[in-house]
Write a structure and sequence with these properties.
With about 725 residues, this protein is mainly beta. It contains four helices and 51 strands. Among the domains are: about 180 residues, Immunoglobulin-like (Sandwich); about 150 residues, Immunoglobulin-like (Sandwich), CATH 2.60.40; about 90 residues, Sandwich (Immunoglobulin-like). Strand 49 and strand 50 form a beta hairpin. The protein is rod-shaped and about 165 Å long.
Length: about 725
């Protein structure tokens, strides 16, 4: 067995890579240059003297010639050390740009693109990793091989803090006729920037867009999406009731008429670098028709079937992009209509993780350097020397430092290359220093120090999606009627006619404003005073502010404004209002008439197109009436003892109709009553059991008969039933 030789203590060799202690400034400069990168594997070389086969290099400070580059077969290209940050981000927003969810997955890859040359001693520095799950900003990799199992270092990460959405996007829907002017770029941009500081916790459930997804996973994802769509179909949000006082949006449309709806989609990028391949797809529900592109501030928009597709090749940071288009919609029922969701895809070149970036990269690969020493033919002991640095690899190399020292005096440098002196060296290139003269009878032996790195390519790729939920268009609709308690009044007398106005919200939109206008009042037919108006809301009387009542000339107006901030709130669907007030008829002349017009005006919040409803209004006539009528009562015995039929008669024996006649009959206490021919109102106006009938109108010579039966109980007296009221 061979015996190991004893180790002998020897002086550690001085490192050949790096910088000398006195080259601190050059080392700092090189560290700064390690932050640089190449976007493509091609070197730009400037040849000042094209008469020579080489490319001269010069001292960056003095401008003196320091050496030359010899290309291999003229090649100016090479591979780079690839560092990639790949992020997938999915953002879900509601219609007001509030973040429903952010899902994020990131991957850091350091890759060797060569199939021939390894990379080793790789030092990578990152910056702004605080919001991520990356453990350290400094990553050291010993070696990367050349096959798929060894050529990549990879680290997954997620976002652990609340973060902002870096692509602001919001849709504005407006149903007003003047929507185009309302949806202007200045006001939209102001509104859009309110979402700039909104943040959300980031999840990690993203739709993979870089690596292929297994079929089973795709099916599960589709099932989840279908379930979400079904849930969305079952839920309807209130159309805009959370909007601000000044609103760019309006969500109310009218029934049984064609409505034009204006859509505006605004985007603003908060990424540090431009984003590209932005695609916005607006889904148009089947209720809408005739989509027309009105304006695009950047990119191109087209109508494709039931979608509007907006493509933008590049969107610059802090640039607001705006698309406007219109659609028509006609509805014949009060079912709420959705406006359609928006799907956005884009690619970004700066991280979504709030400033995460690659700071520095340093790596070695196959290299060769040597000193050619040639003794002169005619001068023995005199040597022509030059340093050669060769890049035999497939990579582009950046030479930071090349120093050759005198073997006799280390303070003497024959070659002194600083970080910016030598251009990038493509694959196969050589750098030759200028020749220096050295005198020695012995073989020259020089100390050398070099520093270089493989030139990197820093890539940040963000594959983003955003989904914006739709909003509900509320159907604004009202119905109603009005009536007077009488429509004929006597001449030359004061008489009040009670007007009853009923309004029902039979749409799906809450109403924020209600206005009643009645006009054409005169001195003979005068409007009510504020304290004479009775307001019933869903059957319950509420107070009416005197400031809500206005009389101007011949026009009488009741205005209920800003109901959403009132104690009663807005007039919700299926709710009703009833206004009761007197029309004062003041000594009207014979044959005078009150022919009035009443209009109900309503509106939603935010404001949409104002609704009008015009109920049919009866005419009040002043007639020279002299009323003549006859009331009779008959008690007719029937059946067994104690059973009687009461017959009441009312007859108009005059020449004019009679209105609002009241007929009453008191049932004696010892009798029970039943079997009415006309159901009465049972009151206690003249005793415990008073039967009351109201006859709305009795025409001239018209006679009506009302019957009912009574049965005596206890000590009854038939004559008590004979008395009438």
């Amino acid at each position: 067995m061979a015996r190991k030789k004893e180790k002998r203590t020897r002086e550690e060799p001085k490192p050949r890579y790096g910088f000398a202690a006195e080259e601190l400034a050059e080392e700092k400069l090189a560290e700064g240059l390690k932050r640089s990168e190449l976007d493509e594997g091609k070197v730009t070389l400037v040849d000042r003297d094209i008469s020579t086969p080489v490319i001269e290099t010069y001292d960056a400070t003095t401008g003196e010639l320091e050496g030359s580059i010899l290309l291999k077969n003229g090649n100016r290209e090479g591979l780079t050390g690839l560092v990639k940050i790949v992020e997938n981000v999915d953002v879900e927003l509601d219609h007001d740009s509030n973040i429903n969810s952010i899902n994020f997955k990131g991957k850091l890859n350091v890759e060797n693109q060569s199939k021939k040359d390894r990379l080793w001693d790789i030092d990578l520095s990152l910056k702004n990793i605080d919001t991520t799950s990356l453990k350290s900003k400094d990553i050291k990799i010993r070696e990367l091989g050349i096959d798929k199992n060894t050529n990549t270092y990879s680290e997954d990460f997620v976002i652990k803090e609340e973060i902002k959405n870096l692509l602001l996007i919001q849709e504005y829907v407006n149903t007003l006729p003047e929507a185009d002017g309302v949806l202007n770029i200045r006001d939209i941009e102001t509104n859009l920037l309110q979402a700039k500081d909104k943040t959300s916790k980031a999840g990690a459930k993203v739709k993979e867009r870089v690596a292929p997804v297994e079929k089973e996973e795709e099916e599960e994802e589709e099932e989840e999406e279908e379930e979400e769509e079904e849930e969305e179909d079952d839920s309807f949000e209130d159309g805009g009731t959370s909007s601000d006082e000044f609103s760019l949006q309006s969500f109310g449309i009218s029934i049984d008429k064609e409505n034009t709806v204006t859509f505006a989609i605004a985007m603003r990028s908060l990424f540090e670098k431009p984003i590209k391949n932005v695609k916005v797809v607006k889904n148009i529900p089947g209720d809408f028709s005739n989509p027309v592109i009105r304006d695009t501030s950047v990119g191109r928009a087209d109508v494709e079937g039931k979608t509007v597709v907006w493509n933008i090749e590049k969107l610059m940071p802090e640039q607001t992009a705006l698309l406007k288009f219109t659609c028509s919609i006609m509805v014949t029922d009060i079912t709420k209509r959705k406006t359609g969701t928006i799907d956005v895809t884009y690619e970004a070149a700066s991280s979504f993780a709030e400033g995460l970036d690659i700071d520095k990269y340093d790596a070695y690969t196959r290299n060769k350097f040597y000193v050619d020493t040639v003794e002169r033919d005619e001068e023995p002991g005199v040597w022509d020397c030059k340093l050669v640095f060769e890049n035999p690899s497939e990579f582009i190399i950046q030479l930071f430092n090349a120093d050759v020292y005198s073997p006799e005096n280390e303070s003497v440098k024959f070659v002194d290359i600083d970080p910016k002196d030598v251009p990038l060296l493509p694959a196969g290139a050589q750098w030759h220093s200028r020749i220096w003269k050295f005198e020695s009878e012995e073989y020259p032996a020089f100390r050398k120090k070099l520093e270089f790195r493989v030139m990197p390519d820093f890539q940040t790729s963000v594959y983003g999606t955003a989904t914006i939920s739709d909003v509900i268009l509320e159907i604004a609709s009202i119905t109603g009627d009005m009536e007077y308690d009488i429509d004929q009044v006597p001449t030359y007398k004061e008489k009040d006619v009670i007007a009853t106005l009923k309004m029902v919200n039979n749409g799906s939109a809450p109403l924020n404003e209600v206005t009643i206008v009645q006009q054409y009042f005169t001195n003979e037919y005068q409007p009510p005073k504020a304290n004479e108006i009775k307001l019933l809301w869903d059957g319950s009387e509420i107070d009416l502010n005197s400031g809500a009542v206005n009389f101007d000339g011949s026009v009488f107006k009741i205005s209920l404004k800003d109901l959403r901030n009132s104690s009663n709130g807005m007039l919700m669907p299926d709710s009703s209002l009833e206004f009761q007030y007197p029309i004062h008829c003041v000594n009207p002349a014979q044959d005078s008439k009150f022919e009035s017009e009443i209009v109900y005006f309503t509106n939603t919040f935010p404001v949409s197109q104002e609704l009008e409803f015009r109920p049919e209004v009866p005419v009040i006539e002043a007639l020279h009436l002299r009323r003549r009528f006859r009331i009779g009562k008959e008690v007719l015995p029937i059946g067994a003892l104690g059973n009687y039929e009461i017959i009441l008669t009312l007859e108009n024996i005059g020449t004019a109709p009679l209105q609002k006649l009241v007929l009453m009959d008191k049932v004696p206490d010892s009798f029970e009553y039943s079997d009415y021919s006309m159901k009465p109102e049972i009151t206690d106006e003249v005793g415990q059991d008073t039967l009351k009938w109201t006859i709305d109108k009795l025409m001239a010579e018209e006679k009506i008969e009302i019957t009912y039966k009574i049965s005596g109980t206890g000590a009854y007296s038939p004559s008590d039933a004979q008395l009438g009221l």
